[in-house]
């Protein structure tokens, strides 16, 4: 299994190399810039990338998402510090292949993130989970302005945001596909959204789901 360390901090590189070297199945390489990362992924598209978003030349969350979508078989671990709550919310919602671990986490959590990634899963550390579960003041103010949904619509939106298909929701609720699809259209119309990502962001802001439910 190939690991790429996309981090320009020497002490972090040394620590990660030490941790990953203990794995018998691992081959690890350090990268210094985005161009090198892209070239490496062309060769090893199923690699695990451990990246410090704040110390690497990736401009923003949107660019990171574009790269992850370009290489859908790769698994990502964000290994950073001082990440904003808005950024974390966006990454959790839009990048399901990306785990998140802060640099001051315990060695146990860092190893757990690597183990999860090696199995094609993502791991969100405890500190980030707590940040995601604590709404910002902006979100609290915005929540009062959000459109009102019926109880049924809220339940269906939650199921949609958690990844259930229209067919699965219909089966769970003992309803027809047509009924659930109509609810879905009404929900999107009321929220003024056009796709699943936008609807999921609303579900987070409205407190219908939390980060723990989303990534489990």
Description of the molecule:
With 216 residues, the protein is of the alpha/beta class. Helix content is 54%, strand content 12%. The chain contains twelve helices and five strands. It has helices at residues 10-21, 34-43, 61-70, 85-94, 107-118, 126-133, 137-143, 151-161, 166-172, 177-191, 196-205, 211-215, and strands spanning 2-6, 27-31, 48-51, 75-80, 98-102. A five-stranded parallel beta sheet has the order 2-1-3-4-5, sandwiched between helices. Helix 3 links the parallel strand 3 (48-51) and strand 4 (75-80). Helix 4 (85-94) crosses helix 11 and helix 8 crosses helix 11 (196-205). It is elongated and about 55 Å long.
Write the layout of secondary structure elements.
Blueprint: E1 2-6, H1 10-21, E2 27-31, H2 34-43, E3 48-51, H3 61-70, E4 75-80, H4 85-94, E5 98-102, H5 107-118, H6 126-133, H7 137-143, H8 151-161, H9 166-172, H10 177-191, H11 196-205, H12 211-215
Parallel strand pairs: 1-2, 1-3, 3-4, 4-5
Task: Kindly summarize this structure in a few lines.
With 216 residues, this protein is of the alpha/beta class. It is built from twelve helices and five strands.
Structure keywords:
216 residues, alpha/beta, five-stranded parallel sheet
Give me the Rg, rounded.
19 Å
- H-E string: EHEHEHEHEHHHHHHHH
Order of the strands making up the biggest sheet = 2-1-3-4-5
List low-confidence stretches: 141-145
Q: Helical segment tally? A: 12
Structural class: alpha/beta
* Topology, number of strands: 5
Mean pLDDT: 85
Helical fraction equals 40-55%
